[in-house]
């Protein structure tokens, strides 16, 4: 390995590519390659994880010479032989598109001895209308646990699939979640605060490791959340770096009323009703009016505006205001990972890819086990033309959050389509219950790429029935924040095939699965 320029050395299976010296090495000795094969490997290495189309590769490697795909195929064959890549896991063929250099098979060190913890949905022993407050309190314990970095914390959606007092078969719950420990609790809200009982349970035996009662009012509620998280971790880990967690703990609001408004807004934001997004925004705005420095409330106003505006479909003026507010939130709470995550979503919608990846990575640095952030990183990687890395991230998110929201299926289907696995993409997209035009458009593109033109034709007919003014081709060409033109062209090609089949007619009867 070149000691002078280690940043220019790439591990490729049993070989090393030293770009600074222009050599492919095995055991420190050069591996013979023709110049064009080396040029091809160099180009692929500078686009790791991104699908490079055949035309792109031929233009890059043979810029002034007309060659056929046979020259490219021969160069790929030579590289695979040199890399001893018989399984084609280093240089992967993406059907009908091109090739991608993948480093995903390189072994990665895995942490050992880390317990996994799921926080179950706390039982609300007070008024039914206080359930969002109790849920939000328990969710903040999830976030507090994750910031310690010494335990694997399963995501809210998975843990909240089980209510603390609804069952006693803790082993079955632990097995279904993949959790070694469970946190269960009961809470009662009062006019000035909250009373909570929390227990830590070993999932395999049902044994109670620790249980205690807590009571707090006003701003002490946030101290109570941190204390519960600290006691849980102290029971599971012998040593804990208190200084690290204190540094990473974001400043909460000083207003209990603002906090309650935020929690009620989050409950609405996760709904799918016609007015849920607008209602959540009003609650977040009310929280800001109670506490103008409440960073999370500012972040969620920005997110609500982004959702209402249609993400990447939002106007430049709206995107500008969303970014301004999200940046303000990060300034107010630079150690709050959710603020960075929202800002990343805004940057991605504005097609500012480097900034989006920076803030998503910052969110993960602050909270490495946040499944939603990991999944959103997967979506970003797909938008940046790195679908194989995206699938690895999404699979990791699903392991942490096995009972995840439906949008995980959507993000995974986009990554699968971009990687050329249309059958798996179709399966993921089919798991979404919503019969929206954009979903049907993606289904049609998958069927068209698989050669099932009759089904693609039927689906486009259904799109036209439910949304006569909607244009599938315009959606494919302009509404998705892909960084590279080749990815736009790839998706557009599938939609164009489906639309051409629809226009060719006659249209067959649409299948029941494609009816409202």
UniProtKB/TrEMBL annotation:
Pfam (any one): TPR_16
Organism from which the protein derives: Mesorhizobium onobrychidis
Domain OmpR/PhoB-type, residue spans: 7-103
Record carries keyword Protease: no
SUPFAM superfamilies documented for this protein: C-terminal effector domain of the bipartite response regulators, TPR-like
SMART domains (alphabetical): TPR (SM00028), Trans_reg_C (SM00862)
Residue spans of the TPR repeats: 337-370
Protein name: Winged helix-turn-helix domain-containing protein
Origin: domain of life: Bacteria
DNA-binding region(s) in UniProt: 7-103
Keywords: DNA-binding, Repeat, TPR repeat
């Amino acid at each position: 390995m070149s000691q002078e320029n280690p940043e220019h050395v790439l591990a490729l299976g049993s070989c090393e590519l030293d770009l600074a010296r222009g050599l492919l090495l095995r055991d420190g000795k050069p591996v013979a390659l023709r110049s064009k094969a080396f040029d091809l490997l160099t180009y692929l290495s500078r686009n790791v994880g991104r699908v490079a189309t055949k035309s792109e590769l031929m233009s890059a490697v043979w810029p002034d010479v007309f060659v056929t795909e046979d020259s490219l195929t021969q160069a790929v064959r030579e590289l695979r032989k040199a890399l001893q890549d018989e399984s084609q896991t280093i240089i992967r063929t993406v059907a009908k598109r091109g090739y991608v250099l993948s480093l995903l098979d390189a072994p990665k060190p895995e942490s050992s001895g880390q317990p996994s913890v799921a926080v179950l949905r706390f039982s609300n022993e007070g008024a039914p209308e206080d359930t969002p407050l109790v849920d939000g309190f328990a969710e903040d314990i999830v976030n507090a646990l994750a910031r310690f970095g010494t335990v694997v914390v399963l995501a809210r959606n998975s843990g909240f699939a089980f209510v603390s007092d609804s069952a006693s078969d803790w082993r079955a719950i632990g097995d279904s979640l993949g959790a070694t420990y469970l946190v269960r609790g009961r809470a009662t809200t009062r006019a000035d605060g909250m009373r909570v009982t929390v227990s830590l349970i070993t999932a395999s035996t049902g044994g109670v490791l620790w249980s205690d009662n807590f009571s707090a009012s006003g701003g002490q509620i946030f101290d109570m959340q941190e204390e519960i998280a600290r006691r849980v971790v102290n029971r599971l880990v012998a040593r804990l770096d208190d200084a690290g967690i204190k540094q990473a703990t974001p400043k909460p609001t000083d207003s209990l009323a603002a906090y309650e408004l935020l929690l009620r807004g989050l409950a609405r934001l996760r709904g799918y009703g016609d007015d849920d997004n607008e209602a959540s925004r009003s609650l977040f705005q009310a929280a800001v009016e109670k506490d103008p420095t409440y960073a999370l409330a500012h972040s969620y106003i920005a997110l609500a505006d982004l959702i209402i505006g249609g993400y990447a479909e939002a106007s430049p003026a709206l995107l500008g205001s969303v970014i301004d507010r999200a940046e303000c939130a990060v300034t107010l709470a630079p150690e709050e990972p959710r603020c960075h995550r929202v800002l990343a979503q805004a940057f991605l919608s504005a097609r500012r890819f480097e900034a989006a990846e920076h803030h998503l990575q910052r969110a993960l640095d602050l909270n490495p086990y946040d499944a939603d952030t990991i999944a959103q990183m997967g979506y970003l990687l797909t938008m940046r033309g790195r679908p194989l890395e995206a699938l690895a991230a999404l699979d990791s998110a699903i392991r942490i959050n096995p009972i995840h929201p439906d949008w995980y299926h959507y993000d995974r289907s986009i990554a699968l389509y971009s990687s050329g696995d249309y059958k798996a993409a179709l399966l993921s997209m089919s798991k979404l219950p919503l019969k929206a035009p954009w979903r049907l458009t993606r289904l049609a593109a998958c069927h068209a790429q698989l050669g099932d033109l009759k089904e693609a034709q039927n689906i486009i007919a259904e799109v036209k029935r439910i949304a006569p003014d909607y244009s599938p081709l315009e959606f494919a060409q302009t509404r998705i924040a892909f960084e590279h033109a080749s990815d736009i062209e790839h998706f557009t090609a599938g939609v164009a095939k489906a639309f051409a089949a629809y226009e060719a007619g006659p249209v067959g009867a649409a299948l029941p699965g494609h009816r409202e």
